[in-house]
Amino acid sequence: MIAIRRDLVRMPDGDVSQRDVVVHPGAVGVVALDDAERVVMVRQYRHPVRGPLWELPAGILDLPGEPASTAAARELAEEAALRAGRWAVLADVWSSPGMTDEAYRVFLARDLSEIPAAERYVGEHEEAEMSVARVPLDEAVTRVLEGDITNAMAVVGILAAARARDIGFATLRSPDAPWAARPGNHG
C-alpha cells in the first residue's frame, strides 16, 4: 500500500540532504449530504491512534487506472450503503507534504439513495465493526471546532461542505476535474 523512498535533494545553499518520502497511491473521501443537510459519518477503529474516529466514507486509490470519482462512489457504497445522483469536488489536499506524497480528493455527494440490503458490501476487519450515523452539517462543524471530529479528511470535507452550502454550491468543480496531484487519476 505504501513504500518509503530515499531521495538526495540539493538545497538552495548547494548542500545535499537526504529525505525519506512515504510514497502513497492517493485517496478519496466523500461528504455525503442528504436532503436534510446531514453528513454521513462512519465511526471506525484506527490502530495507529489506538481508537475509533469519526470519519467520512473514504478509501485508498488502490485499483490501477480507476478514476477517483469511481473510487469515491465505491467507497460510499461499501461503507455507507449509499449511492449518489450528484457529485462534485470539494477539495484537493496534500496530507503531509513534508514527509509523504499522499494526496486526497474530497467529493461532495448529494441526491442520496439507499442500496438494497441484498446488494450491500459485507465489510471485513475494521469495516466489520464500522457504524454509520447522519450528523447535521452545522453540528458536524461544531464538533470539528470542539475537537470531537479530528480525522483530517473529515475536518477538511466538513468545513468545505459547510462553506460550499453557505454560498449555494456555486463554485464546486466537476467530479472529473483535473487533479494536479494525481495527473493520471482525475474524475
UniProtKB/TrEMBL annotation:
Pfam families: NUDIX (PF00293). PROSITE patterns: NUDIX. It comes from the Bacteria. Gene3D superfamilies: Nucleoside Triphosphate Pyrophosphohydrolase (3.90.79.10). The keyword Membrane does not apply. The keyword DNA-binding does not apply. Residues 23-157 form the Nudix hydrolase domain. Keywords: Hydrolase. One of its GO terms (cellular component) is cytosol. GO terms for biological process: nucleoside phosphate metabolic process; ribose phosphate metabolic process. GO terms for molecular function: hydrolase activity. PANTHER family: ADP-RIBOSE PYROPHOSPHATASE, UDP/ADP-SUGAR PYROPHOSPHATASE. This is ADP-ribose pyrophosphatase.
